[in-house]
Specification:
By secondary structure, the protein is mostly helical. It contains nine helices and no strands. Helix content is about 70%, strand content about 0%. The longest helix is centred in the N-terminal third of the chain and has 41 residues.
Length: about 280
């Protein structure tokens, strides 16, 4: 397999993406629980209570196990997608169903990683795109589950974007810095306008940071496209949930997944979309 050819590079990135997707499943499952334990420990400390002696939880320990019977997942049972198919979506010990999300996340990470390598070729843009895609996939699933966008992912994503653009990897550094500030302040302004008008909070601070991170990667010029795309996708999905899934009108819908989807689309086709948008305006 030659990494110099587009096909070889894409295949290698796809295989790497499958492995990273397996790890992202761990991040998606454990990071919110780690955050919750940290908050509980901080609250206990403020109350002067003895910290909990529960088993420590990290992204590396303990080993992955079946939530139903506690069976530890072996290496052969942890091969991306293949293991799920061989096990027919069930635990090998107790036959409890395994969520379809696991192979979906692995497949999505693999396919997007392969496409990024093919799209950008053997360049720094491709390496950066992989980091961005992996972070956005994790944020999408975590926000969908918990309506949280962890600072431990959004803030490093922001700083990595700025660092890459010091060398003009995607955009000049001035545009990246302005994009960071504009991205944050745009949703911050919407948040406060909505709150002052309705007395309710329409979104979380994590959304501000995520749009700031996307601005750091792609510059302020791409923010209108990102906001427009995320709003359209969010509106369509939201209406679909209300109509077809009986999703309550007052039930919050996380905005992070739509920002992430818009960011991925803009990463690959942002300039073309901007030209098309400007063409329709003239």
């Amino acid at each position: 397999m030659s990494f110099e050819s587009p096909g070889g590079l894409a295949a290698a990135a796809g295989l790497l993406g499958l492995c990273v997707g397996s790890f992202l499943n761990v991040v998606i499952h454990r990071l919110p629980r780690m955050m919750e334990r940290e908050w509980q420990a901080q609250c206990a400390e403020l109350r002067g209570e003895t910290p909990s002696t529960a088993e420590g939880l990290s992204l590396a320990r303990p080993r992955s196990r079946c939530p139903s019977c506690g069976h530890q997942i072996t290496a052969l049972e942890n091969i991306p997608i293949v293991s799920y198919l061989l096990l027919r979506g069930k635990c090998s010990k107790c036959a409890a169903p395994i969520s379809l999300r696991y192979p979906v996340v692995e497949a999505a990470t693999g396919l997007l990683s392969a496409y990024a390598a093919w799209h950008f070729g053997p360049t720094p843009q491709a390496a950066g795109a992989l980091i961005m895609l992996w972070a956005l996939i994790a944020l999408t699933a975590i926000d969908y589950d918990t309506q949280l966008l962890p600072d431990s992912i959004t803030l490093p994503l922001l700083w990595i974007g700025l660092a890459l653009n010091l060398a003009g990897t995607y955009i000049d550094i001035s545009s990246a810095v302005i994009g960071t500030m504009t991205g944050y302040l745009t949703l911050w302004s919407v948040f406060w306008l909505f709150k002052l008008t309705t007395g309710k909070e329409g979104m979380g601070y994590g959304d501000f940071k995520l749009l700031a991170a996307l601005g750091a990667w792609m510059g302020w010029q791409m923010l209108p496209v990102i906001i427009l795309l995320s709003s359209i996708v969010g509106a369509v999905v939201g209406i679909g949930l209300i109509v077809f899934s009986r999703h309550g009108r007052n039930t919050p819908i996380p905005f992070g997944p739509y920002l992430a989807a818009a960011g991925i689309i803009t990463l690959f086709w942002g300039p073309q979309l901007t030209r098309s948008y400007l063409g329709l305006m003239t």
